[in-house]
Amino acid sequence: MSDTIHCPETQDLIITHMLNYVPKLGWTLESLRQGVIDAGYKEGDEYRAFQGNTDKVLEHYLSMIDRQMTARLGEVDLLSMRVKDRVATAVMVRLRLLEKNKEAVRQSLRYLRHPTRTSLALKGLYNTVNAIWYAAGDTATDFNFYTKRTLLAGAYSATLFYWLDDNSEDCIKTRAYLSRRLDQVMKLPKLKSQLKDGFSLLLKKIGI
After folding, report:
1. Tell me: the pLDDT tens digits for 126-168?
2. Which of 27, 61, 151, 190 has its CA 20 to 30 A from that of 106?
3. 148 touches 185 (CB < 8 A)
4. How many C-beta atoms surround the C-beta of residue 67 within 10 A?
């Protein structure tokens, strides 16, 4: 069975099991070990899964949620909505996917706060907002492409932190907060010149 430990489907399964342990153990090798065992592998295989590297584990987790979000959005008629509502729908779909593992999300933010993981955090955020804009039907190829992603990165990050402490029914407070933030995102013309240099620097930092 260990021959399959590197395939994406198996890695998804390991992380799914691992999430049961992250709230107490954090994004650690011990959490990975428990996830590997629960997925049907033997103790010691955690050094084979993701090369025993917890940075790679979290990177795959973020990508897994992006993929799940994209799949869910494929079942929604986004193009019948106005752009702001498309983006808001995508963000809320992603948050719903995270809902059952809210404490693991909190742990991931703590993990990514370490200075040595800045690049990992920025790359994960970029990939998420990029997936959201593509799902929303974005076809920009000029500097609008980067401007939209930079603005949404700020709105999504702020909303994620707000959502972590939101206990309102159906996250109604988060929805309202997100709506206010997206109103700012839609005001592109006024912000282009302020963002151009900053985004170029961001891309260099994360190697995109």
Report:
1. 999 999 999 999 987 777 788 889 899 999 999 999 999 999 9
2. 151
3. yes
4. 13
Closest by CA position to 159, among listed 186, 140, 179: 179
In whole angstroms, give the CA distance from residue 101 to residue 107.
10
Q: Mean pLDDT across the chain, nearest whole number?
A: 91
**Are residues 115 and 31 in contact, defined by beta-carbon separation less than 8 angstroms?**
no
Reported confidence tier of residue 196, pLDDT bands at 50, 70, 90: low
- For the chain, report the end-to-end CA distance as a whole number of angstroms: 35
| pLDDT at site 199 | 57
HEC-encoded secondary structure of the chain? CHHHCCCHHHHHHHHHHHCCCHHHHCCCHHHHHHHHHHCCCCCCHHHCHHHHCHHHHHHHHHHHHHHHHHHHHCCCCHHHCCHHHHHHHHHHHHHHHHHCCHHHHHHHHHHHCCHHHHHHHHHHHHHHHHHHHHHCCCCCCCHHHHHHHHHHHHHHHHHHHHHHCCCCHHHHHHHHHHHHHHHHHCCCCCCHHHHHHHHHHHHHHHCC
pLDDT tens across 66-110, in order?
999 999 999 999 999 999 999 999 999 999 999 999 999 999 999
Q: In whole angstroms, what is the distance from residue 132 CA to residue 152 CA?
A: 9
Q: How far is CA 190 from CA 84, 110, 156, 198, in A?
A: 17, 33, 20, 15
In the chain, where are the structural domains located?
Answer: 81-206
- Under 8 Å between Cβ of 59 and 24: no
